[in-house]
Amino acid sequence: QVQLVESGGGLVQAGDSLRLSCALSGRAFSSYVFGWLRQAPGRGREFVAAITWSGDRTYYADTVSGRFTISKDDAKNTVYLQMDSLKPEDTAVYHCAACSVRHLSTYYYQPREYDDWGQGTQVTVSS
């Protein structure tokens, strides 16, 4: 099991940037893929981005590809989400979550595949 604590959310204007952090604790991080998923009011959870702890493979939703960058710092046991060119439609609660490594990367795009979740951090983008 992995514990995840997010930080870095806030209120910004369209076009601004924001960086979210996810502090990890637990064991065997190499057995997991770490993702960022978001939930807007009245909508279900949506995949945003993911990264493997081993190999640094990254995955992005089409809606954020080219604007968001996921990365990690092994020494700090932290996963980041750099969000640039923010849009009002990016407004949501952003959660960091952990998914066991799968044979097929398509699983990482499915919120139901993530077993451990942080409490979330609110990102609000005004127009």
Provide key terms for this protein.
11 strands, globular, 0% helix, mainly beta, single chain, four-stranded antiparallel beta sheet
> How is the main sheet built?
7 strands, mixed
Strand % is: over 45%
Rg, alpha carbons? 13 Å
Q: N-to-C terminal Cα separation, in Å?
A: 39 Å
Overall 3D geometry?
globular
What is the multimeric organization of the chains shown? single chain
Q: In terms of per-residue confidence, which ranges show pLDDT below 50 for 5 or more consecutive residues?
A: none
Average pLDDT figure:
95
Q: In DSSP terms, counting alpha (H) and pi (I) runs of 4 or more, how many helices?
A: 0
Number of strands: 11
Reading the helices and strands in chain order gives: EEEEEEEEEEE
Structural class: mainly beta
Helicity range of the residues? under 10%
Short description:
With 127 residues, the protein is an all-beta fold. It is built from no helices and eleven strands. The strands form two sheets. Strands 2, 4, 5, 6, 9, 10 and 11 form a seven-stranded mixed sheet that branches. Strands 1-3-8-7 form a four-stranded antiparallel sheet, with no helix packed on it.
